[in-house]
């Protein structure tokens, strides 16, 4: 098991999230995404069963969260061997449930 942490700047337009969301499940080849409000940054904690993939996770998180268009939030990702495509799908699913479709 490996734990990875990433931080990105959040939008400064005053947009916030008011609720929590959970999508996915931890199971063979899948991913659980938990999102909660935060006050300043986009904070991401990844717990993965696949060691040595920091650069892959970092590149994917950078692609999704470096635009500065999303509000502050804490994101917990619990991975059991999901592919990058599944990771992106689950994160986008969680953001959509929060009403965040333009990012």
Automatic annotation (TrEMBL):
GO terms for cellular component: cytoplasm. The keyword Cytoplasm applies. Keywords: Cytoplasm, Phosphoprotein. Covalently binds the prosthetic group of malonate decarboxylase. It comes from the Bacteria. It is found in: Cytoplasm. Its main location: cytoplasm. InterPro entries: Mal_deCO2ase/Cit_lyase_ACP, Malonate_deCO2ase_dsu. The modification O-(phosphoribosyl dephospho-coenzyme A)serine is found at residue 28. This is Malonate decarboxylase acyl carrier protein. It comes from Solimicrobium silvestre.
């Amino acid at each position: 098991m490996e734990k990875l942490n990433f931080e990105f700047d959040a939008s400064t337009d005053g947009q916030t999230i008011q609720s929590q969301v959970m999508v996915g499940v931890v199971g063979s080849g899948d991913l659980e995404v938990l999102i909660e409000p935060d006050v300043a940054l986009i904070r991401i904690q990844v717990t993965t069963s696949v060691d040595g993939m920091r650069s892959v996770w970092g590149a994917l998180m950078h692609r999704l969260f470096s635009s500065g268009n999303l509000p502050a939030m804490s994101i917990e990702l619990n991975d059991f061997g999901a592919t990058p495509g599944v990771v992106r799908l689950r994160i986008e699913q969680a953001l959509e449930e929060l009403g965040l479709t333009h990012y």
